[in-house]
Amino acid sequence: MIDHEPLTIEILGRDSGATPVVLDRVMGGTCYLHEAKRIGRHLLSITEGDASPVGFRILGPAYQVLYVWHVGDDEAT
Predict the structure, then answer these.
(1) Distances from the Cα of 6 to the Cαs of 21, 59, 76, in angstroms?
(2) Which of 69, 66, 73 is nearest to 11 (CA)?
């Protein structure tokens, strides 16, 4: 899938509420969904903080959620 506009990748952490905590964010790293998934997995592996990373999501140009992945999900994307 090609989004002609840059995608945003957010690394998600645990939160006691319904909204996930964004630990890290990359805006405009790629416009390709498959590449954004690879970047998200890499960022997840290197993100540190008080709120342990639990997954990542990819947002489209209008900040709509295009893809969400959580630790423990099937590795095939």
Answers:
(1) 22, 9, 23
(2) 69
Residue range 6-11: average pLDDT? 95
Write out pLDDT tens, residues 21-33.
888 899 988 999 9
Domain-wise residue ranges, the chain: 12-19+57-77
Rounding to the nearest 10 degrees, give the CA dihedral for residues 68, 70, 72, 73. Answer: -10
Q: Give the helix, strand, coil percentages of the chain, each rounded to 5.
A: 20, 35, 45
Confidence (pLDDT) at 6:
93
What mean pLDDT is predicted for residues 55-70?
Answer: 94
CA distance 2 to 31: 6
